Amino acid sequence: MASPITETFAAIFGRNPALSVAELHALSGKYGFSIKPLGKYAIELTGFDPKLAARLGATTKLLKLRPDSFGDARSALEAAASKVPAEGKFAFGVSSYSSDKATPLATHVKKFLKSRGVQPRFVGRPKGKSGRPEDGELSAVQVQHNELISPGADWGVFETPDGYRVGRTVWVYDFEGFGARDYDKPAADAKRGMLPPQLARTMVNLATRGDPKLAVYDPFCGVGNLLLESVLLGHRTFGSDITPDAVDAARRNLRWLAEQYPKLPESEVTVRDATTELPADQPAALATEGYLGTPLRGGANEQDMEREAKFAETMTEKFLRRAAEFLRTAPKGVRLVLTLPAWRVPNSRKLIRLRTIDQAERLGYAVIRPLPDGFSYPDLTNRDSIDVSRPKQRVIHELFILERT
Questions:
Q1: What CATH architecture is 178-404?
Q2: What's the rounded mean pLDDT across residues 378-390?
Q3: Which of 113, 75, 74, 73 is nearest to 91 (CA)?
Q4: Could you tell me the fold of the domain covering 8-172?
Q5: Are 285 and 335 in contact (CB under 8 A)?
Q6: Could you identify which of 110, 111, 140, 286 might form a hypothetical disulfide with 336, taking C-beta atoms 3.0 to 4.6 angstroms apart as the criterion?
Q7: pLDDT of residue 283
Q8: DSSP of 299-365
């Protein structure tokens, strides 16, 4: 559907660029916006409603872009800063998504504002995320805590083949809310995967493509991290787990969330072995963290990991057979979004991946490429999956989007 919004925005990636783009790509059809690359750390959104940003899990900041481009970063920032009223105090920051360092650019902007009669204060100590320049961007925390959306400003500059673009931050992700659901919920179990809330939310968006009428089912729900994000996004939500203690924990966490948000949609959690049985009367999109295997000790070697992978492959194949039957009751095109474990071999760049997914077609699925044609990032694999990890993490999430054939 066409969007009446003609402004353009820059969406800043989280740690995993392919995941950020995949989520926005999944939502673009229903919400009528288009995407195109904007340098290494962002994409440009046309026709995007900034109110939709609150739904996102893999985007950290949203900047409203000026339509013009400039020959250098300083000129771009001067154009943005010229809109500041020429009187009084003004706090600002500069985030550089270009080859230019942020601190010298901020110093230049400070001098420019002073020349116009403004009393400027700039927020420094920018820290780039993993894989980004060290003197790069202000974090969402810095932007919010220093009031750089309003009354101040966080200006971001982007280097493109057509010149430099500049924008002003209008939204940052809800790091406090995500943190509370990660660490403050009443029931947690570090041995049961602990799917990060931002990844869980992104998986729900990938599975539903933003359709609020579509229910969500997590058949390996653990303590319910994905269930929490699903109900917050407005979906009727169902979960199950083979372990009664995990089901009890998920129910406690859902009750805890309902105390803060009284009008959440329906949710239900049951005890069930997803490798042998899935409900036949709850058509829904599937989103889940697959079987992770037994937690390995610090001295685990490649042989230990291969053994865990072999067992996880067996469990995953059993689940995929049940899930194919489950999806027969869902509308055509309804997705299964699944993360599978991949183990980093010590002192090596090798990853041990599950081979079950290579049999997807035989099991009744098509693997969906998560990105539009022409988009590619290092965390997109040659299996059309996305590697989601943090530095030094031993077991990573390999995310797949599947549709039943």
A1: 3-Layer(aba) Sandwich (3.40)
A2: 93
A3: 113
A4: VC0802-like (3.30.2130)
A5: yes
A6: 286
A7: 84
A8: T--HHHHHHHHHHHHHHHHHHHHHHHHHGGGSPTT-EEEEEEEEEEPTTSS-EEE-SGGGGTTTTTE
